[in-house]
Amino acid sequence: RDQVTSINQSNEDLRDQVTSLNQTNEDLSDQVITQDQKIKDLSDQVTKQNQTIKDLGDHVTTQNQTIKQLRDQATDLQDTNDELEGKVTTQKKSIEDLRDHVTTLKDTNEDLIEEVTTLRKCQKKKCKSKQGGKKKEQPEILEE
């Protein structure tokens, strides 16, 4: 009998252990489910962060393209500016040449006026000497 009682006690102890192990198994199972959810949540966060990083990368690429376009525009504008500066320099030179030409024409005009005046005076003297001192009408101006 003692042996049967001992076996019964052992059986009861084993049942208690099985119950305890079942409870531990359920607790561990709940922990696994909780850990799986945490892993899923973390995975979702990583996915969102990866999408954010991708979006930022796309934004940087777009910004780089915009910067490149702006640099190209700046280069084009600089080239246009250089061309315009060349044209302005040419125009200034042309204006300077025209001013010099105008000055030359003014000088030539003054010389011609002096010549015409001299010719008129000379012609008046000849007219007086031909008519015996009588003053003749204003002589005609000869055209070149």
- The residue ranges in which pLDDT falls below 50 over 5 or more consecutive positions are none
Mean pLDDT figure = 90
What's the Cα radius of gyration?
A: 58 Å
Q: Which structural class do the helices and strands define? A: mainly alpha
Beta content comes to: under 5%
State the major sheet: none
Provide a descriptive summary of the structure in words:
This protein is mainly α and 144 residues long. It has one helix and no strands. The protein is rod-shaped. It starts with a helix and ends in a 14-residue tail after the last helix. The relative contact order is 0.03. The model has no long low-confidence stretch (mean pLDDT 90).
SSE map:
Blueprint: H1 2-130
Q: What structural keywords apply?
A:
single chain, 144 residues, mainly alpha, rod-shaped
How would you summarize this macromolecular structure in one to three sentences?
With 144 residues, the chain is mainly α.
